[in-house]
Amino acid sequence: MARATAHPDHRLISSEDVQGTVVYGADNKNIGEVDHLLIDKLSGRVAYAVMSFGGFLGLAHSHYPIPWSALRYDPTLDGYRTGITEAQLRDAPDFSDDAWSDRSWESQTHQHYGASTYWD
Amino acid sequence: MARATAHPDHRLISSEDVQGTVVYGADNKNIGEVDHLLIDKLSGRVAYAVMSFGGFLGLAHSHYPIPWSALRYDPTLDGYRTGITEAQLRDAPDFSDDAWSDRSWESQTHQHYGASTYWD
Description:
Two copies of one chain form a homodimer.
Chain A: E1 12-14, H1 15-18, E2 22-24, E3 30-40, E4 46-52, E5 63-67, E6 72-74, E7 79-81, H2 86-90, H3 103-112
Parallel strand pairs in A: 2-7
Antiparallel strand pairs in A: 2-3, 3-4, 4-5, 6-7
């Protein structure tokens, strides 16, 4: 497991440290980890964390794209915290390789998770 | 060498694909590669690409933080293009672990490279 950062009080975090960082849900339960990030080339904003959810059995996919704004870094946990639930993952808008070119899918996904978009 | 993206026409790029991607300078010369990214935790913006410059001999450091806005993805090269020169690297504001907490250093560095800041 990668540590989210060697300097939890710093404003900046390395992409290498984000990858592998644990994500905690309700009751500080470890629900999965960040596999990698998806970055908007034009704006330079992180758009999604692609997460693996080892703890949630029976999900349709091994990895799910989660809006980056749905994760919040918590220095005390040395990981990310999210309010996303297993039920939300099961009901998430389905995705394919084309989803990334589909702003409509992106809007639905952000709305589904109650997350603010990375575009304006 | 990692490819910058398997889908050059997509808006989004994986952090795993950015790491190791070649950066080209003037005359399409390979001047180095992206080692990792530094991301602003609060805004979710990519702030810097930490680059290694194998082709530039005699630099003081093995890695340099380059403002992300100084790199532009070029699908035809399958890599990033930058106008940053060896002279700029040699004259860059010196950095240490404290630099990341120092907005003054960050301002100087962006100004030095003629790059727009990731904050407003």
